[in-house]
Design a protein that fits this description.
14% strand; alpha/beta; four-stranded mixed beta sheet; 13 strands
């Protein structure tokens, strides 16, 4: 079906009011959950074929999260949809005032490749719970998962309610030309700018979940073995392709050597070539060249696995002091308008002997960097006394 005709049919279906009753929304969520539970094995097989994920990781990071989201939303949906009474201004006396939540209409969901099932289905759950129709555009870089999602939706819903559009850039361009009522995009910053530009032509509201950098801060009070394991878990999960995977570490110079030793001593079974290279199956030649260029002058190891070529996401490591960084890098750390910037400025002003006193201008920074296709979403680690938890 032509994409423009598909959207026209969805708008016509939405205008009938069929998606509005809360009981109907709840039934749709239950139907979706039932089909996902029945095809759990097929979902794991598709993720293995596309990204090399093991069945346990597929359930932990994708299928299980979707099922839990379905349970949570179904449990709270009636309360969320209930009108909320608010005070009435004197000018409207003796009226009663309330806030009524209404759906937008037809929602476009554009998903990335790194969590192709979860990041397609979780936005869909919210869209259906709110009473919308939806069009899902899975990533072309995960073709088996994309086809599986299309089959699941065809079994659950009529296309005028929920539809899947497969394809690459041409389909993306066509979709963005259409007058959707809401767009939910997960992906890189460059494409996110294009999505917002196209949406602005129709005054379509958007949610952009974009890539970013996620630092970890380790001070002298941290449990170093535990910190190293958490960093390894956060970096190895999904082969490092997670929005809040630790991109770099700012380590107190008094604990940096011990931290690096602990990371190097992570058991070999946690950094096998098969696991690390599995997600590199989606790399193209340009990405490999970019990886090689980024690794110049750093401690890096090449790995050759069953799916091709990749870099160990934990041991692409370079060690530098803050003083050795170039101007742009210093500015990025010192003047960024996020939580890290505020914290770093405070650290520079602390007197000797106070907490975090190791974070002076001459402090050591162990940089853990991942390269390849960009992260799908940005995030900031929460930090406090001790090590920031690496996860996500």
């Amino acid at each position: 079906m032509d994409i423009a005709d598909l959207l026209t049919n969805q708008h016509a279906y939405f205008s009938t009011g069929a998606t509005l009753p809360v009981d109907g929304r709840r039934q749709a969520l239950r139907r979706l959950g039932g089909v996902i539970a029945q095809r759990e094995g097929a979902i794991a097989d598709a993720l293995q074929a596309d990204l090399g994920k093991a069945a346990f990781e597929s359930y932990m990071t994708e299928t299980g999260m979707v099922l839990e989201e379905l349970r949570y939303v179904e449990k709270h949906l009636a309360r969320w949809a209930r009108p909320r009474h608010v005070p009435t201004p004197m000018a409207q006396f003796p009226a009663r005032s309330f806030v009524l939540k209404e759906p937008y209409g037809s929602v476009l969901i554009m998903a990335p490749w790194n969590y192709p099932f979860q990041l397609s289905l979780e936005p869909l759950i919210g869209a259906l719970a709110a009473g919308n129709c939806a069009v899902i555009k899975p990533s072309a870089y995960a073709p088996r998962t994309s086809q599986l999602i299309a089959d699941l939706m065809a079994d659950c819903f009529a296309p005028e309610y929920v539809a899947v559009v497969q394809g690459g850039r041409e389909e993306n361009r066509t979709l963005l030309e259409q007058p959707f009522d809401y767009i939910f995009f997960t992906g890189g910053i460059a494409v996110g700018k294009l999505v917002m530009e196209k949406a602005a032509q129709h005054l379509t509201p958007v949610s952009l979940e974009l890539g970013g950098k996620s630092p970890c801060i380790v001070d002298e009070s941290a449990d170093i073995p535990l910190t190293a394991r958490r960093l390894a878990f956060g970096k190895f999960l999904n082969a490092g392709q997670t929005c809040v995977a630790p991109d770099y570490v700012l380590a107190d110079n008094r604990v940096k050597p011990a931290l690096l030793r602990e990371m190097e001593n992570i058991p070999d079974e946690r950094r096998t070539a098969r696991f690390v290279c599995s997600i590199c199956a989606v790399f193209g030649d340009d990405d490999i060249v970019r990886c090689e260029g980024a690794c110049e002058g750093t401690i890096a190891r090449r790995l050759h696995g069953q799916n091709g070529f990749g870099y160990d996401p934990l041991f692409m490591v370079g060690e530098r002091s803050f003083a050795e960084l170039d101007g742009p890098a210093k500015d990025a750390i010192s003047h960024r308008g996020r939580a890290l910037a505020a914290l770093y400025e405070k650290l520079k002003d602390r007197k000797e002997g106070e907490w975090y006193d190791g974070f002076q201008n001459e402090s050591q920074a162990a940089l853990l960097c991942q390269y390849g296709r960009g992260n799908s979403a940005g995030g900031q680690k929460r930090h406090g006394r001790g090590a920031a938890k690496a996860g996500g």
